[in-house]
Amino acid sequence: MNKRARLVVVLLVLAAGLFFLYPTFKWYFLVPQAQKELAAGSREQIKAYARGRAAKELTELKAMVTKDPGAVMPAKYDFLINVAKENYKLEKTKIPAHWTVLDVLKSLGSEKNLFESIESHYRDQLLALKDESGKILQLGLDLSGGMSILLEADMNSLEKRLGHPPTVEDQTQAVNRAMEILNNRIDKFGVSEPQIRKQGTNGILIEIPGAADPDRVNSFLMGKGSLSFHIVDQEASQKLATFFNEHPGEMYNPDGTVKRPAFLDAGDVIRGYYTKDQYGIDQLKRYVVVKKEVGLDGSHIQEATVGNHPITGKPVVNFTLDPAGGEIFFKLTTANKGKTLAVLLGDKVKSMATIQEPIRSQVQMTGFGRKEANDLALVLRTAAMPVDLIVSSQQAVGASLGEDSVKQGLNAITLGFLLVIVFMLIYYLGGGIIADIGLILNLIFMMAILSAFNLTLTLTSIAGVILTVGMSVDANVIIFERIKEELRLGKSPEASVRAGFKKAFWTIMDANVTTFIAALVLSQMGTGLVQGFANTLAVGIVSSMFTALFVAHLMLDFLVEQVKVKKLSISWRI
Fold this sequence. Notes:
It is built from 18 helices and 15 strands.
């Protein structure tokens, strides 16, 4: 590969690194702490905040227009000016040179439109931040804390599944199996370095680093049995809708549950049909009547993937049934052709469709948001929980290391890195500058890769970073010493650089490949902090080899071939 091509590769890798690193930089250095805390909350909390903020600012704007309609619109409402500009363009009206409060409010038409515009601004802002928080380099429990969830195994559900009271051995096996499934699910959900351990006899304690989204965390606790298919009783559903419209006071019992009218058959049950609102929260649209008998349950699902509907473009979940499930579903759809089939997630109707023809093994579900569809597909691809798990408590936890310990560790790491840079500059002179540039690029590439894969950075992971820095320096030392040997033989700088890299290549490869294999083994067999250290070390090895054998080589080639230096600044003794 010629030098121009190598330069293009380096620039592309650097651009990609900065691209993946920017969300992490923005989150930790540019986003205010208050905004981060709001984005880390549940969608219900975001909804309450956005609506409360909209109500407050609506009152302020009404007071402003009453006091002085010609007042200039404050800068904090620039987002409303943008909405007003679009409305003026649609109405083909001349856009004012200076936006007054009255101009903006007139363009929005009504208080309702004004309220919705303000609400959507804060909603979109916080939901975008929530999405960004899932694309950054997370800090571990020891550095920033996270979320602690205590689950309790419901032994009544285990008894129903076994058909007899569970023995102590049955309970132990069920809890251990549930821990294994949870560990697998959390890993697939992209949460790095969780700590899962048994608490007492029937408890499971999960500690997840970072500001974990409560909605996201709860989603991986779903079991296969929570998904089921039922035939809809359309006639009863229509009668129920008419009855509730005519007698709204008869909809609910004193305890808030839906009242069951006398005209429903014994084999029918009432279930709510839910759709996602703009916040991604389930909203009740209406009640439907479905057959109590389960037509097919989720335990027969073998594989689940997420795709897009060919016409609407909305996310769909495609899944394959096992042979037994295929036969059950074929008989169900054959016997109920022309009727409506409902997909229930727990007790919520998420999707309904008319059965056009018998279906055997390939089934497609709609009615889910993109994130919900991905979460559901991941859960369906894992084994069913052997026992129902109840969330006993869920709370935020502080960092396991004190602030002083974290500062001391980071100071030691920073000091060590700076000493390495200074040493290379003093000992190798001009060559030390090249090595230091490679070290800095190495750190950028490492952080970018860790950010791209949403990995978690703990104090042990940082130790892996420092170990990698040492190994990267080691590669540069080997290369420079080889070049010095060639220079002592009287070779030209160009020939010395070429021979030095050629002779150092396999020595560096052997040392790094063996360490990389060890890191992979630790990554696969280790858990928690050990796995974080191994992941960081593996990423660092790849990055350091690239900077030492590719970037440093390119810079030295440029000096000896383009600049044509007569003497390499690589040692005090040469």
